[in-house]
Structure formats: C-alpha cells, structure tokens
Amino acid sequence: MKLNFSVAPDSPPERFGGWHMLNTLLQSRSGLHLHLLTPPTPAEQHELIRAGGVDLVYANPFDASELIRQLGFSAFARPVNKADEMVIACSAKSTATRVEDLRAGCRIAVTDNRDVRLIGLRLLEAADLTDADIQWVPTDTFQGCARLAIKGEVDAAFFMADTFHALSRITRSQLTVLVESALADITHVLLAHAKVADQVPTLLAALAGIGSIPADQEVLDALGISGGFAPMQQEESEFMLDLMETLLD
C-alpha cells in the first residue's frame, strides 16, 4: 500500500532535501511505501487533499485545524522544541525600527500562509492596525516578500521565522526585524487520514526512533528539526486548535 505524504509548502526550499532523506529513512525503518509530495503552493496542496490524494500531511497549525475538524485527519506527531513563530520585517533603509512605527495604509507583503498572517495581525495590534488598515501585497514565496521589502516596494513583510532566519546573510542584512513572535505552543504537526489509521503505529514508531543513533542527526539537521519528533496526543492537538481559534476571535 502506497501512502502519499505531503509536506507543507511553507517549508523552506532548502529543506526539501531533508524531507526526501526523512522519507527514505522512514520507508527503510517502517517497511511502508511512502510517496513524498512537495506542492509548491498552499492552493495546490489543498487541491490534492480535497481530491483524496493525500494520506499523510506535515501541516501548519492553521491548515491542521481544517484538516482535523472537517476532512478526517488526526494529529499523531509534532517536531520537538520547534514552535511556529513569525517575523515582521522591513527594509534596512526604512525609518521604522519597531512594529509601532507602521501606520494605517501601510503596504505589507504576504504569502498565502494563513497562520503567518493570523499571527502577524495579532502582532500589529501593538500599532493599532487591523486587517482593514493594511494594503496587502500578495506574493508566492517568502523570498518574494524579502525582495519587495528590500526594494522598498512595501512598508513591511510577513515571514515564517524559520524561513526568515534561513535567508542568506546578505538578504537578512538588508532587512530590519520589527518584531518576532514568541507563542511557543503552536507548531506544525504530522497528520494521518482516518483511512490509513491502522498504519500510524508503525509509522510513529519509526518516526519517534529517528535520532536514536548518531547518523540520524544529519537527516534531522537537514530538516531544521534537530530535536526530532514526538508523539502528539489528541488532548494536545485540541489545545492547539483551541488556541488558533482564540487568535481568530
């Protein structure tokens, strides 16, 4: 039986090699046939999932809410000590030095990552800004957000913190961080569809064991998940989903 395994498109491109390494290692240790999918955009991932072509998903917390509560998925693991945080940054040439320096009517570059936008809007409350006060400039990638900010074509840009810190040193030197979130309880999660629930114990045993030998660390470092993965209980996933709903209110 082949299991289609989709990785969230917000994973930095430089991490895709790590996901292929993990996929190979999981197949070897679990005996399961996993087919890795790396859709380039959230829209393409959603289309694959709704068409029933995905069995396992590494999802951001916002998408996880819909997948769990509407589409028959359940969380079974999460990365260790790797919370989902986000960064609001602007051009280093800007006079802004903190998020409170942004004003109504400001232009902000964003990708189609709803969790990043949601957390960013919460951080913008410090500047008394709401969704209606902002001119959103959509981009396909966080690298695109960086380019717009550096050129001064937007007043600020939203990034996943991991992706921001993975940008090249030259790129980061041309940006100023206005604020970085510190929520701690929100993470990406690994989900399995109900139709493959009987395969989850085998997969989880293999996944949780990665890191048990020194050679595994190369794979985890390539993923940017140096602490490995830990099982996630239903109570933990419900707590995180409730937190996401609180952010939406």
General description of the model:
By secondary structure, the protein is an alpha/beta fold. It has two domains: 146 residues, Periplasmic binding protein-like II (D-Maltodextrin-Binding Protein, domain 2); 95 residues, Periplasmic binding protein-like II (D-Maltodextrin-Binding Protein, domain 2), CATH 3.40.190.10. Helix content is 39%, strand content 22%. It has ten helices and eleven strands. A six-stranded mixed β-sheet has the order 2-1-3-10-4-11, sandwiched between helices. Strands 7-6-8-5-9 form a five-stranded mixed β-sheet, sandwiched between helices. Strand 6, helix 4 and strand 7 form a beta-alpha-beta unit. Helix 1 packs across helix 9. It is globular, with a radius of gyration of 19 Å. The N and C termini lie far apart (42 Å). The mean pLDDT is 91.
Q: Could you outline the blueprint of secondary structure elements for this entry?
A:
Layout: E1 2-7, H1 16-30, E2 33-37, H2 42-50, E3 56-59, H3 61-70, E4 73-79, E5 86-91, E6 107-110, H4 114-124, E7 135-138, H5 142-151, E8 156-160, H6 161-166, H7 169-173, E9 175-180, E10 189-193, H8 200-209, H9 217-223, E11 229-231, H10 234-248
Parallel strand pairs: 1-2, 1-3, 6-7, 6-8
Antiparallel strand pairs: 3-10, 4-10, 4-11, 5-8, 5-9
Helix pairs in contact: 1-9
